[in-house]
Structure formats: structure tokens, C-alpha cells
Amino acid sequence: IGGHGIMKKKAKCIDIIVYAFLILFGAAALFPVIFIAASSLMDESEVIRSYVSGEMDFHIIPRSFSLNGYLEVFLYTPAYLMKFWKSMLLSTVILAGQLVISCLGGYGFAKFSFRGKNVIFFFVIILMMMPLQVTLVPNYIVFERLGLIGSYASVILPGVFSTFGVFLLTQFFSSIPNSIIEAAKLDGASQIQILCKIIVPYAKSGVASLCILNFIDTWNMVEQPLIFLKDSTKYPLSVFLANVSRENLSISFVCGILAILPVFLLFLYLKDSLISGIENTNLK
Fold first, then answer.
1. Does position 283 have pLDDT exceeding 60, yes or no?
2. What angle do CA 10, 15, 16 make, to 5 degrees?
3. Which backbone phi and psi does 65 adopt, to 5 degrees?
4. 126 with 246: CB under 8 angstroms?
5. CA separation for the pair 159, 162 (Å, rounded)
6. pLDDT tens for residues 94-116?
7. How many other C-beta atoms can be found within 10 angstroms of the C-beta atom of residue 227?
């Protein structure tokens, strides 16, 4: 009995240590968001006094709450919201194109047999593993020859044809029993009907995972717009954030909240599917 009690005490101590570590880790992860949200409620003079001037009066809770930054971003200066909607448009178009390409490619690799399939899929994996910086130069050369440099197409096309989605959905689609597909064929369903009405709904957790991962990646892109878009007025919010602080540091915190909001809402909406997708994928 005494040994059992000691074991229970040890288990409780371990649980307390684990929970304390998780709380500290969570607090450290959330601190930047809390810092940005709190600073966005300060007026410009307080921000300058806290982070710019020699006083360095660092504090989290604003001494005097102000919504001037929000009024400037959402009402007085439309340029900030224009950058936001440009980012939203780019991310949405890239995500839509990526879903189409990934679903078709994943279905082909998962459920069809053809000559050179393994070789082609090997190159898909190689392209997926390549750093973004490696592909920027060849992409630039191709788009320059096509006359697309400076247009949004040069930013959208590489994202649409990214191989990560094809690789990810191939894993999910491969886990779907072939008997379901054969039964659908006997009922007279076409390949497109099988894909749209059976494969995609069956692997909805994988599709949701791709949605959130792709949206986050394209929402935060910086290198592609800087290199492919010559006109700075076309830059999305992710690039524009680097220059906001030169105009008004307090407004930069509000723009930071604006940049966090879509990703945060998308994560809340799809977090269960994302977790389920990561747990159920048959990657080994």
C-alpha cells in the first residue's frame, strides 16, 4: 500500500511539472500576440515613449487606452485595408488553384497506375523538399520570358502548382479503400464524380489540413512579391508590414492585428480537422 501511495505521489509530481511546463510554453507562445494587442491600444506618444525613446518605459497594459490606430487603419486611411484585401485575394486564389491541382494530382497518384508513376512522384517529393530560394531564380527567368514579371500571375502560379498539396493528398487518398471506388464505378459514376462526391468528402480532414497550411504559407509570403512585383503599390500586407513602422509605430501594431485575424479565425474554424488530419495521415 505504501509503495502504491508513493507511486501515485510521483505521478502527481510528474503531472504538475508537465502542466507547469505547458503553461510556461503556452504563455511564451502567446506573449507576442498579447504584446501586439496591448500595444495597438496605446496612443502614438505612449508607444514612442515605451519602445523608441531613450526612456524605454516598457509595459504591457496601456496607461491610457486609445483607438486612434484602429480608426486610422479602418476608416481614415484606406491604403491599409487595400493591402489586407490584396493579401486576401492572393491567398484565396492560390488556395483555390492549389486545391484543384492537389486533388487531381493526389487522386491520380493514389488510385491510378501508369508508366513512370514512381519516378514522377519522386520528383514531386524532391521539388517539395527544395527551399523556396532555390526555385526563385528559375521561376523569375520563366516569368520574364513570358512577360509576367510585375503581374500577380507571377506570384499566384508558383503557389497554385506547389507540389506539397499533391504529396499530402496522395497520402490521404491512398488510405481510401478501392472497394468504394469500384462500387461507385458499378453504379455508373464518372471519375470526376468519384473524386468530388466520394474521395474528397472521405478525406475532408486532409483537405482541411491543406487549406489551413496553404493559406498560412501564402498569407505570410514575402520573398515572392518582393522579387516578382516591381510596383510597391501591389505589395500584399505581409510585405507592407515591414514599412508601416516608418510612418507610425502605433499603426504597425494595429496592422499586425489585422494580419493575425484571418489566420486566427481560419484556425479556429478548421483546427479539429487539422488535428484529425495530422493524426490520421499515413505518413511513416
1. no
2. 95
3. -70, 140
4. no
5. 5
6. 999 999 999 999 999 998 888 88
7. 16
- d(Cα 252, Cα 73) in Å, to the nearest integer? 9
Q: What is the DSSP string of 39-98?
A: HTTB-HHHHHHHHTSTT----SS-SSB--HHHHIIIII-HHHHHHHHHHHHHHHHHHHHH
Tens digit of each residue's pLDDT (9 = 90 or more) over 174-202: 888 888 888 888 888 888 998 988 898 88
Put simply, whether the predicted model's pTM sits higher than 0.85 gets the answer no
Cell 495597438 sits at which residue?
A: 40
Q: How many CA atoms lie within 13 A of 212 on its CB side?
A: 21
Distance set, CA 84 to CA 81, 91, 108 (Å): 5, 11, 36
pLDDT of residue 282: 46
The answer to whether the CB of 257 falls within 8 A of the CB of 40 is: yes
C-beta atoms surrounding 73 within 10 Å = 24
* C-alpha grid cell, residue 25: 510554453
Residue 225 CA to residue 90 CA, distance in Å, equals 11
Residue with cell 501564402: 218
Q: 259: which DSSP letter?
A: H
Q: Cell 514575402 appears where? A: 222
**What is d(CA 271, CA 216) in angstroms, rounded to the nearest whole number?**
13
- For residue 23, count other CB atoms closer than 10 A to its CB: 10
Among 220, 210, 221, smallest CA distance to 106 is for: 210
**Beta bridge mates, 65:** 42
